Amino acid sequence: MNPEDYSEIFKALSHPLRLKIACGLLHKGKCNVNTMVERLGESQSLISQHLNILKKSGIIKGYREGNIIWYRLENELAAKLLKNIELKLCD
What we know:
Elements: H1 3-12, H2 16-28, E1 31-32, H3 33-40, H4 44-56, E2 60-65, E3 68-73, H5 76-83
Antiparallel strand pairs: 1-3, 2-3
Helix pairs in contact: 2-4
């Protein structure tokens, strides 16, 4: 991996809400927007904005099942970095 790969991941995870979303997906495997709204206490539009940033950076992907879009952490480097965070951010 080159420094640019790490830089893009750190940039995408630099916002506290995006970091929470990514950590949640790491631990839960998959999640939909409605569950994120409920658990994070933020508006659907705000969470959707942050999901788009994570998708554009290649950290997550969305998968449609009927009317529901499920999001999953897809970037192995991002997963490794999140697993190594020693703080309790991902609990």
